[in-house]
Amino acid sequence: MATGSHILGRFSQAFECPICLETFKSSTLLSCGHSYCVLCLQSHINSKLINRGTPQARLSCPVCWAYSSLPNPTVAAEKWAESFPVNSIVSSLLDITANISGETL
């Protein structure tokens, strides 16, 4: 029989950023449905778009390669990740998990 901590551990694994492999911090959502930490997504943007010298108005998802248009391309390139919507479902579930386990994720 699974214990509460075992279930929470499995649940937490489902909410890991595919870039840093840690629990999401300030989760942001691409149009394909994949989520990332804002800082991880910004690092991806920096390496794939900005550092190539020709910033583009769309970003390929690191997981499925689907393109997402930048929500607000007029924002400074260093803030593009912050312009994507917050994944409120992930944020809410992580808050619930933190309350159950008694710690902040």
TrEMBL record:
**Phylogenetic lineage:** Eukaryota, Metazoa, Spiralia, Lophotrochozoa, Mollusca
Q: Which Pfam families match?
A: zf-C3HC4 (PF00097)
> For this protein, what is any one GO molecular function term?
zinc ion binding
- Tell me the domain of life: Eukaryota
Q: Which InterPro entries match?
A: TRIM45/56/19-like, Znf_C3HC4_RING-type, Znf_RING, Znf_RING/FYVE/PHD, Znf_RING_CS
Q: Indicate the segments forming the RING-type domain, all copies.
A: 17-64
The protein's name: RING-type domain-containing protein
Q: Which UniProt keywords apply?
A: Metal-binding, Zinc, Zinc-finger
